[in-house]
Amino acid sequence: MGSEHFPPFQPLTLNISQTQYSIISSVGQELGWRLSQSCKEDWDVCWLDSGMTPERLIRLRPYQRINHYPGMHSLSQKNHLAVNLKDMQEALPQEYDFFPQTWLLPKSYGELKRDVEEGKKKTYIVKPEAESQGRGIFLTNSLDKVPTGNRCVVQRYIEHPFLLDGLKFDLRLYVLVTGSDPIHIYIHEEGLARFATMPYKRPKEGNLSATWMHLTNYAINKTNPEFVFNTEAEKDDVGHKRSLESVFSRLSSLGHNSTELWTSITHLITKTMLSAYPLLTHIYHSCQPHVPSLCFELLGFDILFDHHLKPWLLEVNHSPSFNTDSPLDESVKRRVIRDVFGVLGVTQEERRRYYEGLRERSVQTLVLDRTPSLKLLSPLNGRNTQARPRQPTLGGFQLLYPTVSPNYLPCLEAASRIYQSRLPKSQPTRDLSALSLTPLRRMPATRANSGQEEPRRLSFSNKRPVKGPSASLVGLDAAFLRPIVLRRLPKGAYLRPKYLKFSSIDPEDRKSNTHIKHILRIKHVAKT
């Protein structure tokens, strides 16, 4: 085997080809990591500004880490977050009372109309489903200005927010999610407080359009000529963007119990994350049933206090901004990102073990003339390539879940029941954390337990013979994200998977193993 097939020893590599934030690469350089601008190069950690797809997760190697989970849109998109938390409110009303009353339009227009017509006049805030940074948000107290044909989220406006210096503000908190089953949830002690730039007054007909008064989004308020930028990281208690620590110190000086406030916030965050737990673990284990820690995600939770200092969840950002417009931004965000990499605990040992496994497979197939087993062939199985897990370096992060106290089991059980109720009746619910790769019959290959639709077949042809002994192949049913395993391709057969979208053999692995390269020639055929 030539040395070109196995990468030489190299420092930990951070792929920054798909992020716009320079602070990510700056932190990587501080840690002594190699930076990569190419998607084709081997890497250990990849930072994306966009979302993550199941297809990409399937292709990850056991030593790689990427900063998004497939399915996180269930929290980061306003409409999905509203659906999740409304269902949880119905199941556990006392536990999930931190989300404002919400209507999804146009579906819930009738319910919103009844609420408008009942009782005294109320104020609502209208948000587009998929916009960010405050774009398209406005306040109204009637249905005349609510777009009936557009998809949007309407919420009861919190008219009595807690004020500091006469200004409305919200908190941007950084929450890290790692692992798959169980998911680990952390919150960082650093954060930001974003202030409105006009003194707050209760909403009325004359000031509903005053966005600098009612909205706390930094992207909106920095356009106000009155916006005061932070000029020194040490002076974090002045201006219209301040540190989380300075706000809690101010609240303590006013006689409020900052410890209780922090505890209530951590409960809110944990319960929100658990509402999406079943979906996240289902998708993850369907793509990577044996490697539990390839994904991580740094979320931005936006929290607002009302005049009783009760925290309310405004939204969850799956790609919070890491622009550094001020020394305070630079200080807070640099520490958060550095601590994220510390929690991940990525080492060169994991990559070394992976490539040693490839060499062992090459010896078995080329020197000893053995047929590689399914366990060795499949990159879905990381038991032989992942190093022993190490205790993470938390830095400024605090572990919220899993914990012994408080008991979040009722929240998790309710989320599981809700998720199962949303599944199609023809699709059986399964415990994917205990999923084993069980071989199906070679001809025909059917979707397990479907029972109602036409079986999905994999056709064979002898037009292009394949050299070498029989082998195993792991694929994925793209429609239901279920592993399908085919064993023992007959010698001389050519596999034409009409519905099998992904090969289990990574293209890079094929180059490094001539046995696999010759026996697996996959041709994708369009669905007929």
Secondary structure: elements and pairs:
Layout: E1 13-18, H1 22-30, E2 34-36, E3 45-48, H2 54-59, E4 65-66, H3 73-76, H4 78-91, E5 102-105, H5 109-117, E6 124-128, E7 138-140, E8 152-156, E9 163-164, E10 167-178, E11 184-195, H6 211-214, H7 218-221, E12 241-243, H8 244-253, H9 258-275, H10 277-287, E13 296-305, E14 311-317, H11 327-344, H12 348-367, H13 374-377, E15 397-401, H14 409-422, E16 459-461, E17 473-477, E18 482-486, E19 494-496, H15 507-512, H16 514-519
Parallel strand pairs: 1-2, 1-3, 3-4
Antiparallel strand pairs: 5-8, 6-7, 6-8, 9-10, 10-11, 10-13, 11-12, 11-15, 13-14, 16-19, 17-18
Explain what you see.
Among the domains are: 101-157, Dna Ligase, domain 1; 436-519, no CATH class. Helix content is 30%, strand content 19%. The protein is an alpha+beta fold and 528 residues long. The model is unreliable at 368-388 and 428-528 (pLDDT under 50). The protein is globular. The strands form 5 sheets. Strands 9, 10, 11, 12, 13, 14 and 15 form a 7-stranded antiparallel β-sheet that branches. The chain has a 4-stranded parallel β-sheet with strand order 2-1-3-4. Strands 5-8-6-7 form a 4-stranded antiparallel β-sheet, sandwiched between helices.
